[in-house]
Predict the structure.
Amino acid sequence: MKVLEIKGKKELSGSIRVSGAKNASVALIPAAILADEESTICNIPEITDTDALCEILEFLGVEVKRASESIVIDPSNMKNLEIKDNYCKKLRASYYFMGALLGKYKKVTMCFPGGCSIGKRPINLHLKGFEALGATITNNGNKYTVEAEELKGANIYLDIASVGATINIMLAAVKAEGTTIIDNAAKEPEIVNIATFLNSMGAKVTGAGTSTIKIRGVKELHGCFHEAIPDRIEAGTYMIIGALCGNRLKIDNIIPNHVEAVISKLQEIGVEIEIGADYVVVTKPQKFKTTNIKTSVYPGFPTDLQQPFTVLLTQAVGKSKVEETIWENRFMHVVYLNDLGADVTVKNQTATVLGPTPLTGTHVVATDLRAGAAMVTAGLIAEGTTIITNIDHILRGYENIVEKLISVGAKIESKEI
Ligand code: EPU
């Protein structure tokens, strides 16, 4: 079994370069099949989630060349095959092939996607969008066939500003006849990044980044060159780590605007942050003040950073609260945090954190991706040795996490036990 072993309490300084955004990359890769020609996308992180999507591309007959963080995708010889269940189950974002294959071939069959167990994660809004575009949906157990004679632009109101549904509907609509308007669309930077890619391929998408996105359908899309944005969640994770153990820890290659909510919460609890054009420098303060966090859609405090931030709040003097509003099951890290010595209770989707509590290393589990990031964060401030199991979750989303942390002075090792 592969584990991460961390010997905590080391001061971290130097620079960590943030990789391309996982949650943009996992949509850019499927989106590339909408063109009839080769596209090159750079700044794609080498993580197991992007590997899994490349496997799906290859299964579909798409030529994929990867060199470091660049990926060249040539769909000119692809076929519309039913994606095998084991591929879909590997990750949540396999569902972007629903929108992309529907948009390209007007038919797709695939099963319900996998991913972290942080809630029920229904796909009703994705399907509602496809139906509005003229598709019919046949659901047989876990399998969905979505098909249309013709896709026609429509007005679609999303009951929830869902990231996945917004992107999936954009993918299905770019080649539809006429104009599609998505209202109450999600506004996350990843959506803007996908829309920019589609536009570079010849699509006509406007309004991405606002709650109304307009897509005028085009007949054809061509190959292009594109770059994934920096990963704001990876950046935020290292900023939190910097706040706990940093001595001028530089988090480089970021878009500071994208992490504004985290910067402001860190400043509120007393962390000193130097903000540059594409970096921040974070230093641990003498002591942390308490605060309350409520997760929310962008530009609010991101749910994906709630778990690592909870670790930080265990070191604040007094009582803090963390309210999770996006996912029903995103406090699985708390039991392990308490095993390490924290005092956190969860009631009605709100964690109450009493601090400061010293943490002491023990065996903990990465129950999902960001819970894993929380365990790494906790291990870095714990006295003694922390062993984290189930680390596949962490490797799905953090490129070279071990190497990056070692390079700034952490004692962390990935080993077989
Ligand atoms: N929802 C529905 N029906 C739908 C779609 C969503 O009820 O058809 C609900 C969800 O159950 C959830 C809320 O709407 O309660 C928001 O879900 P959303 O669709 O926005 O999330 P997602 O697209 O599945 C992406 C990221 C998540 C991130 C959320 C919120 C990817 C691959 N995943 O998920 O990232 O937490 O947006 O920002 O982009 C992570 O990186 O650890 C992660 C889980």
Q: What stands out?
A: The chain has two domains: 2-19+231-416, 22-227.
